[in-house]
């Protein structure tokens, strides 16, 4: 999962970015309203959710949310603000935001709201993803092959979830990188290939002998990877 934080308090923005990283989510932050609007317009398909402050320099979070919805950008938006009156909450939701959280808040409360929004899929997605005897549960962040639990790192889990949500589709390395890593990561390294190597190794190791020759994650030379749900 990848989150865009739009917050003009640099200390808060950096602490939220670190907090989400510890939870296994990639996160970027922007402190300027106009820059945030451009990022959302150009890269909304690379993000799963926006945490959007109401009060920003150059353009308000309210106006950014209205603009996004006017352009039919349906990415979930969680609005942050120091305003906590009923009228303000109504205005925030009327802007197109999906939820509203008043400052100050605890990071865990924010994370609970984020998880709730991410469970509201754009198209009804299953809570558990299953192919043959491979089962991934986003809620518990656990993966099983048959009755064996496959222990994955946070990035490996994110990779597998992204692949399983796009079965039989060739995903190039740039697509994968943009979905799993934040903008500050080094996109010129072989980070995708390295993490994919370890993910496949763990899955193949835990497969039973009967299915060992059926590769779930296939390398597409010169392009990227494909998750074979028909195997």
Keywords:
alpha/beta; 12 strands; 231 residues; 2 domains; five-stranded parallel β-sheet; four-stranded antiparallel β-sheet; Arc Repressor Mutant, subunit A; Rossmann fold
CATH superfamily of the largest domain: Response regulator
Cα(first) to Cα(last) distance is 26 Å
- The tally of domains stands at 2
**Side-by-side strand order of the widest sheet:** 2-1-3-4-5
Rg measurement, Å: 19 Å
CATH topology of the largest domain: Rossmann fold
Oligomer: single chain
Q: Could you describe the largest sheet, including whether it forms a barrel?
A: 5 strands, parallel
Report the strand count: 12
Estimate the global geometry from the Cα principal axes: elongated
Mean pLDDT level: 84
Poorly predicted ranges: none
* Name of the CATH first level of the largest domain: Alpha Beta
In percent, how much strand structure appears in the residues?
15-25%
Q: What percentage of residues falls in helices of 4 or more residues? A: 25-40%
**What is the annotated CATH architecture of the largest domain?**
3-Layer(aba) Sandwich
Content-based structural category: alpha/beta
Count of helix runs:
8
Describe the structure.
- α2 runs parallel beside α3 (61-70) and α6 crosses α8 (191-206).
- A hairpin with a 4-residue loop joins β7 (134-137) and β8.
- The chain folds into two domains: 2-118, Rossmann fold (3-Layer(aba) Sandwich), CATH 3.40.50; 129-227, Arc Repressor Mutant, subunit A, CATH 1.10.10.10.
- The protein has eight helices and twelve strands.
- By secondary structure, it is α/β, with parallel strands linked by helices.
- It has helices at 10-22, 33-43, 61-70, 86-94, 107-118, 154-164, 173-180, 191-206; strands at residues 2-6, 26-30, 49-53, 77-81, 99-102, 129-131, 134-137, 142-145, 148-150, 170-172, 217-220, 224-227.
């Amino acid at each position: 999962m990848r989150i865009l934080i739009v917050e003009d308090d640099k200390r808060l923005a950096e602490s939220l970015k670190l907090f989400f990283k510890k939870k296994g989510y990639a996160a970027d932050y922007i402190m300027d309203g106009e820059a945030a609007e451009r990022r959302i317009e150009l890269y909304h398909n690379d993000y799963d959710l926006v945490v959007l402050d109401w009060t920003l320099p150059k353009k308000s979070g309210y106006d950014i949310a209205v603009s996004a919805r006017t352009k039919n950008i349906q990415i979930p938006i969680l609005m942050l603000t120091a305003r906590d009156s009923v009228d303000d909450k109504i205005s925030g939701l009327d802007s197109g935001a999906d939820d509203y959280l008043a400052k100050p808040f605890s990071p865990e409360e924010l994370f609970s709201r984020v998880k709730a929004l991410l469970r509201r899929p754009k198209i009804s997605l299953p809570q558990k993803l299953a192919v043959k005897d491979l089962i991934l549960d986003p809620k518990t962040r656990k993966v099983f092959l048959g009755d064996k639990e496959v222990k994955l790192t946070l990035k490996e889990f994110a990779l597998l979830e992204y692949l399983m949500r796009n079965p039989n589709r060739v995903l190039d390395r740039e697509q994968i990188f943009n979905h799993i890593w934040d903008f500050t990561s080094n996109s010129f390294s072989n980070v995708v290939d390295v993490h994919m190597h370890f993910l496949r190794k763990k899955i193949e190791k835990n497969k039973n002998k009967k299915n060992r020759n059926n590769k779930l994650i296939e390398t597409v030379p010169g392009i990227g990877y494909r998750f074979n749900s028909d195997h």
